[in-house]
Amino acid sequence: MSELKELKRLRDEERTLMNIASKLSDQLNRMKVEELALLSMLHKEGLPDKSEENKEEEGEREEEEEDQQPSTSQPVTEETEELVPLDLSVHNLQQVERMEEEEEDFEDDDLTMMMTQING
After folding, report:
1. What angle do CA 80, 30, 40 make, to 5 degrees?
2. Residues 6+ apart with CB under 8 A from 39
3. Any residues with CB less than 8 A from the CB of 99 and at least 6 apart, and which?
4. Per-residue confidence band for 84, with pLDDT thresholds at 50, 70 and 90
């Protein structure tokens, strides 16, 4: 009997983890789409995007470092990326659906506002 309970608990836990993985994957995809949209907007406005600026700056820094470094090898310190905290809390299905609806409403409002500014 206890084996059945343990098996049910493990199945529930697996479903929960799969749900979380699905939500994280979905959120990552949304963020990628948003990033592409922002980059597209920057490109349309003729503003250089950060990725191009960073590539140019890195290339200049590498050239300067090569010029400044003597022939003996020195340890190179690498820049670390800033870590962004993730909210990994588990919500029940109703809370998740309500949060998604609020996000969609917020995104729709933002999109409408951006389109108004672009067309205005």
Report:
1. 80
2. 49, 51
3. 91
4. low
- Within 8 A by CB and 6+ apart from 20, the residues are 88, 90
Which one, of 75, 96, 97, lies nearest residue 87 by Cα? 96
Instruction: Specify whether the CB–CB gap between 52 and 59 falls below 8 A.
Output: no
Helices (H), the chain: 2-44, 50-68, 93-119
CA dist 67 and 2 (Å) reads 70
Domain parsing of the chain, residue ranges: 2-58+92-119
* Residue 95 tokens, joined: 């809370």
Return phi, psi of residue 71, to 5°: -65, -25
Angle, vertex CA 45, rays to CA 59 and CA 84, nearest 5? 60
Q: What is the pTM of this model?
A: 0.38
| Terminal CA-CA length for the chain | 68
CA-wise closest residue to 95 among 14, 19, 6 = 19
User: What 8-state DSSP symbol labels residue 69?
Assistant: S
Res 48: pLDDT: 65
